[in-house]
């Protein structure tokens, strides 16, 4: 929702209050002002319009769990203007006006608290810059590709689908540590995302690179998977790692031959690993990956994102996914994260 409309209302309301205060000093306009402050007067209607001005934004923010585009400065100025209006209405005893304005003050305060809960108190400009740097999903192959030209034709449908065919799925993002984003019907390409400014500390720096992030994806499904799906998934995991410039040291897949069908697929990365563990007979699969010290952590995130998209293509339309994101809770000795 655009801020210009409510900003215009705020400026207009402050100017109106100023003009009204000046005019009330004149006996000529006092009678007119008193008539306008009647219970059914224009002032009550004006306050009622302001009272619902923030309702669409509040509904949108609660639905999407996002306060993007609402700055702390705008909210504080708007809330300050509302408080001035409220005090003014009390002074002139405009009961209907200040009672209605109380609703808008409540909505505005709720929005401010919601933004603090979702975004924290970090500098908004720095957050937007980091989010812009990290959320470059459209240039995923170009930014992190390690120069393997033989992989350019690998799974073109998957790569093109990331930008053009990503449908909505049933995804839930757990609020671990800094993350408080719990969203139903979340677009999966936006589900795995983190900001360096809120999750990176001095204790997570090793040799000038970031590490210590753990991304987990849990999936439940109802379709019957073929026995070779474990090998196919491992091949896809390694291929995506190469595309995004994450070095694979070794990989191995173990297909269960017991009474419970399933598999384990593991790839040892540069100072890290990623793995998939599946009980296909029970319709359960989990994937996890640690960010690596030898590669950009955002490249590792993109591997997890693309694996999620691959699972969505192969686990059926009724599958459900839950994404977890863990970061260190506290500093560890000698400046090294876990």
TrEMBL record:
Presence of the UniProt keyword Transmembrane in the record: yes
Per its record, how is this protein called by name? PQ loop repeat domain containing protein
* Alphabetized UniProt keyword annotations: Membrane, Transmembrane, Transmembrane helix
Which GO terms of the molecular function aspect are on file? Answer: adenosylmethionine decarboxylase activity
Positions of transmembrane segments: 42-60, 72-91, 97-116
Cell location: Membrane
Example GO CC term: the record gives: membrane
């Amino acid at each position: 929702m655009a801020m210009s409309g409510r900003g215009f209302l705020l400026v207009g309301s402050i100017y109106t209050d100023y003009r009204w205060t000046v005019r009330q000093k004149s006996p000529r306009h006092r009678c007119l002002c008193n008539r306008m402050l009647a219970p059914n007067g224009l002032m009550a209607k004006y306050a009622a319009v302001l009272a619902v001005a923030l309702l669409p934004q509040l509904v949108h923010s609660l639905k999407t769990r996002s306060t993007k585009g609402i700055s702390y400065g705008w909210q504080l100025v708007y809330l300050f203007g509302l408080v001035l209006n409220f005090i003014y209405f009390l002074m002139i005893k405009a009961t209907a006006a200040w009672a209605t304005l109380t609703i808008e003050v409540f909505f505005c305060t709720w929005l401010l608290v919601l933004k603090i809960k979702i975004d924290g108190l970090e500098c908004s400009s720095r957050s937007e810059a980091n989010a812009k740097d990290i959320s470059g999903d459209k240039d995923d192959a170009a930014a992190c590709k390690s120069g393997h030209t033989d992989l350019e034709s690998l799974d073109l449908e998957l790569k093109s689908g990331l930008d053009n065919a990503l449908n909505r799925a049933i995804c839930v993002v757990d609020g671990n540590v800094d993350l408080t984003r719990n969203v139903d019907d979340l677009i999966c390409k936006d589900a795995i995302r983190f900001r360096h400014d809120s999750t990176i500390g001095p204790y997570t720096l090793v040799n000038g690179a970031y590490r210590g992030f753990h991304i987990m994806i849990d999936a439940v499904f109802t379709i019957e998977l073929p026995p070779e799906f474990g090998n196919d998934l491992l091949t896809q995991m390694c291929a995506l790692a190469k595309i995004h410039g994450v070095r694979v040291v070794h990989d191995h897949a173990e297909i269960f031959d017991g009474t419970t069908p399933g598999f384990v697929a593991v790839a040892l990365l540069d100072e890290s690993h990623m793995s998939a563990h599946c009980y296909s007979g029970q319709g359960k699969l989990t994937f996890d990956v640690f960010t690596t010290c030898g590669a950009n952590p955002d490249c590792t995130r993109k591997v997890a994102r693309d694996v999620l998209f691959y699972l969505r293509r192969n686990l059926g339309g009724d599958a459900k996914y839950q994404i977890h994101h863990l970061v260190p809770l506290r500093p560890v000795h000698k400046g090294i994260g876990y």
